[in-house]
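Example record used in the benchmark description.
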Amino acid sequence: MGHTFDRRRSKRLFLNFSVEVSGIDRYGQPFVECTKTLDISDTGCRLFAKAALKCGDLVNIRLNVPTGERLPDERPQQFEVMWVEPTGACWTIGARKIVNGEI
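Model output (structure tokens):
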């Protein structure tokens, strides 16, 4: 799946943040994993994931501090998986932030 046409409304920033991703994978199994973002925007992010996800899956993403501990008031944000591509032994995921229950 090529992403040559960029429909983003906001600028993409190539920033690597340590994040915790949790949810239910495509096999109905709960998962929690630590990974890094590839880029972020006002509306979403792109990241690597070991969990097998599919378009439409909902995941919670929480920012981690460098030591791997959570920030004191950092609450997870809910995202919808918009696209998934195999990348070696894991997946590259494009996710869009859900704001006030709306995508």
